[in-house]
Design goal:
By secondary structure, the protein is α+β, with helices and mostly antiparallel strands. The protein contains 10 helices and 13 strands.
């Protein structure tokens, strides 16, 4: 295998904590005093305000495309919800950049429509669907989930989507299907980091069929009441909230049912650090850092990590 340089962000998972909490405190201070315009003066030249103005502008067209979806109260969590702007400016999306705070600025060339999703492999009814036709056919709901990155940051956001189970029932897995393999798009013109040949693009992930059929497993097409902006994995991405975030593959073009355990992107790159299962577990440290606690993005608050990210009653029986 060729030598692969591990990106800085993975070496120092908390490297942006300080600058980010400064940014949030400034935003809150301005908001609390009702000083939006004075704030601009006070902090003119500050990256934080420029960043906030920029992302507000970037989000306008996505916020205009609302998705009607009833909130499923079964999935509400006790934690405070993460601010939309915070979630939209702190992303992992290596196809665009390894800098979490800059993904939203690097997605300008990305086009999420038209978009097709192919469902193939060990199914009775393979099909290729336009994403908007798929969205029309599926039972959309809103679910507020905890989300935990392997780098020990966490958030709470309202996803809109449908259970992956609903799609799998439509294509009818064959008796010998045991795994689901998923792929992200490949288009270096839209996603410049895909020109980096040291990484095995396109991004690929997988689940067991039992995991894919679990009630919690969501194919998300929206967030905060509207369609997904590019940085969150438009137009359709996976959400498996009891697993570390890298399992939740973005911008999916292919879902294939197989009888072989699929390989996964991060496991292929650094097998001793990122395994196939990747269940959130405070008792199993990452080889380079503890997983005992997590930092909430936005507030900077530190909380104890929960086994299976707090979803054990739904998924512990799988393991
Ligand atoms: N295709 C693709 N999917 C991806 C990633 C990526 O780099 N490329 N990053 C993963 C990681 S490490 C995390 S933590 C989540 C981040 O999702 P968010 O930016 O919507 O919070 O996306 C996951 N899905
Ligand atoms: Mo992550």
């Amino acid at each position: 295998m060729p030598y692969i340089k591990i990106p800085k962000e993975w070496e120092i998972p908390e490297n942006q904590a300080t600058s980010e909490s400064d940014y949030i405190n400034r935003r809150k201070f301005i908001k609390d005093l009702g000083l939006a315009s004075a704030g601009t003066l006070l902090f003119s030249g500050s990256n934080a305000c420029a960043q906030e103005r920029g992302v507000e502008k970037q989000l306008v067209p996505y916020r205009a495309q609302k998705l009607a979806a009833k909130n499923n109260t079964a999935f509400t969590v006790k934690r405070q919800m993460t601010d939309e702007v915070v979630a939209a400016t702190y992303n992992n999306y290596y196809e665009f950049t390894t800098s979490k705070s800059r993904v939203w600025q690097k997605v300008k060339k990305f086009r999420a429509r038209p978009w097709e999703v192919e469902i193939s492999g060990l199914v009775e009814k393979p099909m290729t669907l336009d994403v908007d036709d798929l969205i029309k056919q599926m039972p959309l709901e809103e679910r507020i989930y905890r989300f935990r990155c392997v780098e020990a940051w966490a958030m709470v956001v309202p996803w809109i989507g449908f259970p992956m189970k609903a799609l799998l029932e439509k294509v009818q897995p064959k008796a010998d299907a045991k795994y689901v393999r998923m792929l992200t798009f490949l288009d270096p013109d839209m996603a410049p980091e895909q020109n980096n040949a040291r990484l095995p693009w396109p991004y690929f992930e997988g689940l067991t069929l039992a995991e894919a059929m679990n009630d919690l497993t969501l194919l998300s097409v929206g967030i905060y009441g509207h369609i997904l902006p590019p940085q969150h994995g438009a137009p359709i991405r996976l959400i498996v909230p009891w697993k570390y975030g890298f399992k939740s593959i973005k911008s999916i073009v292919s879902i294939e049912l197989t009888d072989q355990k699929p390989r996964t992107f991060w496991n292929t790159l650094i097998p001793r650090e990122y395994d196939f299962e990747a269940n959130v577990n405070p008792n199993v440290p990452h080889p380079r850092w503890s997983q005992a606690s997590e930092r909430m993005i936005g507030t900077g608050k530190r909380l104890p990590t929960m086994i299976y990210n707090g979803y054990g009653s739904s998924v512990a029986h799988l393991y």
